[in-house]
Amino acid sequence: MSASFDPRLVARLAAVGFLGVIVQTAAVSQLPIAGANADLTPLIVMAVGLLCGSLAGACFGFGVGLFFDVVALQTLGVSSLVLLGVGYGAGRLREARDPEGALVPLAVGAAATLAFALGFALMQFLLGADAPVSWALVRQIVTTLVINTLIAVPVYAIVRRSLQGSLPDDPRRRRRRAYTTGGLSPLSRGTDLR
Amino acid sequence: MYDKTVRRRRAVLGLLVACSLILLTAYFGESTGGALHGVQRGTSEVLNPLQEGASRALKPVRDLFGWFGDTVAAKGEVKDLRADRDRLRTEALAGEADIAENKRLSALLELDGALGLKDYAPKTGRVIFQSPTVWYATIRVDKGSDDGIRVGMPVINEQALIGRVTDVIGSSSQVTLITDQTMKVPARAGRRGVFGIVEPSSVGNPTDLVMRFVPPGAQLSPGDHVLTRGTEPEDRTQSLYPVGLPIGQITHIDNEGTDTQEVHLRPFADMRSLDVVQILTRPRGPGG
Description:
The complex is a heterodimer of chains A (about 190) and B (about 290).
Chain A: H1 7-26, H2 40-52, H3 54-71, H4 78-97, H5 104-126, H6 135-163, H7 171-180, H8 186-193
Helix pairs in contact in A: 1-2, 1-3, 2-3, 2-4, 2-5, 2-6, 3-4, 4-5, 5-6
Chain B: H1 2-29, H2 35-57, H3 59-108, E1 122-130, E2 138-141, E3 154-156, E4 161-168, E5 173-177, E6 185-189, E7 194-200, E8 209-212, E9 225-228, E10 246-254, E11 262-267, E12 276-280
Antiparallel strand pairs in B: 1-2, 1-12, 2-5, 3-4, 3-12, 4-5, 6-7, 6-9, 7-8, 8-11, 9-10, 10-11
């Protein structure tokens, strides 16, 4: 987590967040697919959370959300509040479970998109949205969820590639090091003692 | 060491949540001329050329996606369009008599019929941003206060009314679409010009609007057209929209004949694929 203060990482995160929001607003949001469109913001925040941890994920989510609200002329604070939760959640998953596997970003990306959509909807109701919710809204959320799930792995790969060289300890490297130095968890050490 | 890390993590999280809530409360509570709105507009102004450039650069990709989507949608529309053609042919025959009568009456009253679009001094703009969340039905157009655009001006595309300008900066303006939950448009429907207020039927549904406050005895039926009402002589305040702009076509009526009847209509304009729009800079016509 100390790596979150690495100036190179911060600069790269700022660039990733900036470009992500610009691409989202200038292109992706104008590409309707089956009546909905992809939403890169929760995927980018999820990727940063998974790669950099909860603290960096939360800060990145807050920053991206705030920038997005500013660019889209939306109510300030809504996206930042929801996305900081997404980034923190993805980061905690990395710290607590350290998930492995090529399809982890796919599952976490789907969860991040769903959390963002539901969190955003909840905020809108709390702020006093007075129109009823239709099946069309549910269908759009589900469609966005499906599209985001499909593109979660490539988005994760692009973010990872962009941050390569500045990332905190890679989980695989950590695991490899732990193996060569006699195990990672107290449980494995206990086994050795017996 | 572990405790310190956990404490720091929780403190930062709490701080960020507090910042978000403070921003949200301050923004929600202030007027549109407030400090946060000003900062937001200023930042938007700075980023506008970048967004516009990115939007132009990525237009071929958007067009490619649009082509695929249009091809699939066009196949499904052929049947509907054939039915529409047959119905419109019948209506056109019936309408010829009405047109002839209208010409006579117009000549009698020394009116020259409906106003042409040029009278509203339209400014053509390109859509450079469309809100990705279904909760905000907004677009941004590359025409702003430098081009004479002001808040409140109606916006149309080649098909119908799509919304009105709700925020303006120097080089661009934000347009809130008629499918946004905050929008209400006074309208008239059918041959008798029945009055009602058009608003979205539900959040996130760009293909269904509802016309409320329609009198219970109103004679409306599916297929009738809905147009903007404009300003009537007895109105205390002027409508933001000129008279006669097409909005949509009635699809069905819920609770027909009761006080709570809701007339559903499908907007003529496809709000999901807006590219070029026109802002009516003189919505009250030549004398406005």
